[in-house]
Design a protein that fits this description.
Shape: globular
Number of strands: 10
Number of helices: 10
Strand order of the largest sheet: 6-7-8-3-9-10
Distance between the termini: 15 Å
Structural class: alpha/beta
CATH class: Alpha Beta
Oligomer: single chain
Length: 259
């Protein structure tokens, strides 16, 4: 079933990338890429490991600086921001790491309280507790509020990671391989949650993935990255109906396409 979202505003690009090149020593990773992310949209960046996908979102978050090209978020050139402006920008961006990046010594509740107390010191204790309960309820894990990360399954850890990101109410979500290491059923649940977040929180998201099912389920558009370049961009049917050997190489990987 084709994903239908009716609140994408193609007049507003919250991320705009033009001519970005990034190398590490002699290794050219990104070789001149262009990409727009529109307000309310999910773009799935699909590619094999080592194709440059994760470098892309690190550039967007200001963790890396491009060698050439423009990376604009909310109209601002990210590499030109000073430390204070970059911190303010990052408060508007939610970053879900592949590992979920939870603090193992903290309970689920404490993991969620930490970024909120650190960044919004004006909140009362009651407001913090209400915010934690709300996001946990929205990811279906309110009953796990007092558990330790070690007591959670891989899928539950992903959900808590998403909840911890959402607690600051970001406008943009960057998902780095959100279904990596998960079984097929749990992967579907995480895909559904990404779509729920898009609607409930009105986020604009880039989903980095090598999982064809994830890309198809979550992406309003697919950007197929091959060796540091976007080879095709469009909705799922547009990208995969072409006679494209690189696209078709995904067919038998983790999803069977009927033609």
């Amino acid at each position: 079933m084709k994903k239908v979202v009716d609140h994408i505003d193609k007049e507003i690009a919250v991320i705009s990338i033009r001519g970005v090149i990034k190398s590490f020593g002699d290794l050219a990773v990104l070789k001149g890429i262009d990409l727009d992310l529109y307000k309310g949209e999910n773009v799935a960046v699909l590619g094999r490991s080592g194709s440059g996908k994760s470098v892309l979102i690190k550039l967007i978050a200001g963790m890396l600086v491009p060698d050439q090209g423009s990376v604009k978020v909310f109209g601002e050139e990210v590499p030109q921001l000073d430390a204070k402006a970059l911190r303010q920008l990052r408060l508007r961006i939610g970053f879900l790491f592949q590992s979920s990046a939870l603090y193992d010594s903290m309970t689920v509740k404490e993991n969620l309280e930490f970024p909120l107390v650190r960044n919004k010191r004006e909140l009362t204790l009651k407001q913090v507790e209400e915010a934690v309960a709300e996001v946990l309820n929205n990811v279906g894990l309110l009953s796990s509020i007092n558990k330790m990360p070690a007591q959670l399954s891989g899928g539950q850890r992903k959900r808590v990671g998403i909840a911890r990101t959402l607690i600051l109410q970001p406008e943009i979500m960057l998902y780095d391989e959100p279904t990596s290491g998960l079984d097929p059923v749990t992967s579907i649940e995480i895909n559904d949650l990404i779509n729920d977040v898009q609607v409930k929180y009105k986020t604009s998201s880039i989903i980095i993935t090598h999982d064809l099912v994830c890309a198809k389920a979550t992406g309003d558009r697919i950007a197929l990255m091959v060796e540091g370049r976007f080879q095709q961009t469009g909705d799922f049917e547009e990208v995969f109906r072409r006679d494209n050997a690189e696209a078709k190489s995904f067919y038998g990987y983790n999803f069977i396409l009927e033609k």
